[in-house]
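Appendix C reproduces, verbatim, an entry submitted by the partner laboratory led by Prof. M.T., so that reviewers can inspect both the input and the predicted structure.
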Amino acid sequence: MKALAGDRRARLRAMLANLKMPGALEAVDGILAQADSGAVTAGEAIEKLLSAQIVLRNNRRLQTAMRSSRLPAVKTLDQFDFSFQPSIKREQIESLHELGFLERAENVILLGPPGVGKTHLAISLAIAAAESGRRVYYGTLAALIESLTEAKAAGNLSRRLRVLTHPALLVVDEIGYLPVSQDGAVLFFQLINARHERASTVLTSNNGFAEWGGVLGDEIMAAALIDRLLHHCHIVNIRGNSYRMRAHRDLLRSRRQERREEPAS
């Protein structure tokens, strides 16, 4: 019996290697041991085997995306604290993470004051897209405009616009944090216009749409930009306290408690 089990294990390992499933290959011995002991059923063993391969594939996709997309950190939906931001409709966010909006080339705009989790949610959408095999790219508005300005000066604007149009998901972070020149606003409009109805863009801003004219320095340009963005768009309004301020308050509270507990000299 042991010889037959060993032969079966060897055949399974050979088949997994032939199918180029290194994640499943690495996990197969442990899963088979669980199956042999009766800890898991045959169906559960197959599920575990396939899950190990999917986890490895997604991790590799994420590593590739982190190198090419300029994502500043790994922030996932599981790490987001919905209890701290009750204004957010959890069903809406979870639905967006199913990525149907990418298939339809729709946009997502996250609005709210600083520190409420807009960037976290934007990056988590990019992470989900990367894990599904889509190409993603991240940049603050200031960084994207700077790259477009440099490309224009070098005579490579058309090429740079094509590069930024190609990703299935572009994250434009921090709209309204820094002023934008009129030339920069024109370049940003060209980018959004190039992606319009071709690919999805996720944007974050601490300014309402009525203030975008002041941010971009041109009311007409801002109106045309918003018109394209809102044509097929999901808007997430976040009204709540800052995570960073909460962390700061928790740190101060902890330090005060430590001082009170220190023995008198």
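Confidence is low (pLDDT under 50) at residues 247-252. Additional entries are available on request from the coordinating office.
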